[in-house]
């Protein structure tokens, strides 16, 4: 995948996030926040490309991202999650049941 100096490549092991970004019916707070950031970057002649990587497959970047996420979780303002309706959380969590 070719990128120029105005392109940010964001990798994730979360397929649900990528599918949620594609699904125009999904308007959850965090998904909308990501979409707004993408539009903001496009308006500045920049671009974000998303790609999926397999989790727990010994990708250095994936392990580093997991470690960074765990470390930064203590510094994140969790208040934003209160904006997600409980019904949405229940529905999305039910998608994870096996």
Number of strands: 2
Helix share, percent: 40-55%
Which whole number gives the mean pLDDT?
Answer: 78
- DSSP helix count? 4
Write down the overall geometry.
Answer: globular
Radius of gyration: 15 Å
Q: How many separate structural domains?
A: 1
- Quote the distance from N terminus to C terminus: 34 Å
Percentage of β-strand residues:
5-15%
Sheet/helix structural class? alpha+beta
Biggest sheet features: 2 strands, parallel
Order of helices and strands: EHHEHH
Low-pLDDT parts are none
* Largest sheet: spatial strand order: 1-2
Give a concise summary.
The protein is an alpha+beta fold.
Walkthrough of the structure:
- By secondary structure, this protein is α+β, with helices and mostly antiparallel strands.
- The chain has one domain.
- Helix content is 46%, strand content 12%.
- It has a two-stranded parallel sheet.
- The model has no long low-confidence stretch (mean pLDDT 78).
């Amino acid at each position: 995948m070719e990128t120029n100096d105005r392109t940010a490549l964001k990798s994730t092991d979360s397929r649900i996030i990528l599918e949620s970004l594609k699904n125009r019916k999904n308007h959850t707070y965090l998904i909308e926040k990501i979409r707004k950031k993408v539009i903001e970057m496009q308006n500045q002649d920049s671009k974000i490309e998303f790609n999926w990587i397999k989790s727990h497959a010994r990708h250095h970047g994936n392990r580093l991202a997991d470690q960074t996420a765990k470390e930064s979780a203590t510094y994140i303002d969790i208040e934003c999650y209160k904006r997600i309706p409980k019904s949405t959380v229940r529905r999305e969590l039910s998608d994870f049941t096996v």
